[in-house]
């Protein structure tokens, strides 16, 4: 799993440019929740294995 690249992308905000260097470690506008982290991890796994895994939205499939 490539967690380091996923976590570093969350510290710059959600799709926004990074603030000036004096505020380089600013928190994103939305807090990183377990659900958001799981979603990003799943998206990373799907990107690493295209066509092998299918996101169905159902917890039982």
Automatic annotation (TrEMBL):
Region (Disordered): 1-28
Domain of life of the source: Eukaryota
Protein's recorded name: RUNX3 protein
Species: Danaus plexippus plexippus
């Amino acid at each position: 799993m490539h967690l380091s690249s996923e976590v570093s992308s969350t510290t710059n905000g959600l799709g926004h440019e990074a603030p000036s260097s004096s505020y380089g470690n600013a928190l994103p506008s939305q807090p990183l929740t377990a659900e958001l982290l799981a979603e990003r991890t799943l998206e990373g796994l799907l990107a690493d294995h295209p066509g092998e895994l299918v996101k169905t939205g159902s917890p039982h499939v």
